[in-house]
Design brief:
Number of strands: 11
Structural class: alpha/beta
Radius of gyration: 18 Å
Order of helices and strands: HEEEEHEHEEHEHEHEHHEHH
Shape: globular
Largest sheet: 5 strands, parallel
Strand content: 5-15%
Number of helices: 10
Strand order of the largest sheet: 7-8-9-10-11
Helix content: 25-40%
Length: about 290
């Protein structure tokens, strides 16, 4: 426990150096269309950013870090920074916050501007409440206090389905800026997006490739669309979500995949192909524990 707490302190110490950058800004103007996205050059990758309604800019695509632990995990995160990632998603339960903090600290020492980074993590002393816990409202009230004091630039939630979200925001003084949920071709979260629309809460997709379940990337229709744009099925999936204003945090430890996932800002899907991909939606979760 002593070692764990030390690692937790190291992470918080490192991210605290970024002047409140362990955040994602405030609320996103809704709806968001492809033409609202601005681009910034990141060592060859043209990352699109969102301008949130408090003026903070946020990369629309980031790296999920679940299972990226130890030296190998820190190496993967450092490589992600090298190829252009600036948004990172972590959680206390991932046991990799120290590695992420060290990778970012090294990058800052190497000359990357501190304000470029956006770090997401969960639980009370962090950014997102991980799930609709029974104590969520009390936890969120504490987060609201930190937000009002300027300690956090944004607060949000994770894995709140449409019903849970609608009930939760009734008691919020500060509307969640982000709701990070399972979102992919087979679960496009249309009811949730509609519920969040008036509150301008940003939907962020975790596991956009469904963790390989159902061999979605081998679907013949998806592969045919990808071939048309000279892209991979994974790139088409990411682009499909991005064009609807959905932030994405695909997870990978492989540098080539990191680069592939970033290379989605040089094409747009036709209206016809967008409609075809919308037809994949089953509105069913691929994971038994999510709150949809």
């Amino acid at each position: 426990m002593k070692s764990y707490n030390a690692n937790r302190r190291d992470f918080l110490k490192n991210v605290a150096q970024f002047a409140g950058v362990a955040t994602l800004g405030a609320y996103m103007p809704y709806p968001l269309f492809a033409q609202d996205l601005k681009q910034i050059s990141k060592k060859g990758a043209k990352m699109q950013t969102l301008t949130l309604n408090n003026g903070v800019k946020m990369p629309i695509l980031g790296l999920g870090t679940y299972s990226l632990t130890g030296k190998a995990g820190q190496k993967a995160m450092s490589e992600a920074i090298e190829v252009g990632y600036r948004l990172f998603d972590s959680a206390q339960m991932y046991n990799n916050e120290a590695e992420l903090g060290a990778a970012i600290n090294a990058a800052v020492k190497g000359g990357i501007k501190r304000e470029e980074f956006f770090i997401q993590t969960k639980l009370l002393d962090s950014l997102l409440i991980h799930m609709p816990y029974s104590q969520s409202k009390a936890m969120y009230r504490a987060m609201e206090s930190f937000y009002k004091q300027g300690i956090l630039r944004v607060i949000g939630i994770s894995n709140f389905g449409a019903k849970a979200y609608s009930e939760f925001v009734k008691s919020c003084e500060v509307i969640p800026a982000i709701n990070q949920c399972e979102t992919h071709l087979l679960l496009q979260q249309k009811p949730l997006r509609e519920a969040m629309k008036s509150k301008k809460t940003l939907l962020q997709s975790w596991s956009p490739f469904i963790a390989g379940k159902g061999s979605i990337l081998e679907n013949p229709t998806l592969k045919s669309i990808a071939q048309k744009y000279n892209k991979t099925p994974a790139q088409v999936v990411l682009r499909f979500l991005i064009e609807q204003g959905i932030s994405v945090i695909p997870k990978t430890s492989k540098r080539a995949r990191m680069q592939e996932n970033l290379n989605v800002f040089d094409f747009s899907l036709s209206a016809q192909d967008m409609q075809i991909l919308k037809g994949f939606d089953t509105n069913k979760s691929a994971f038994s524990w999510t709150n949809n």
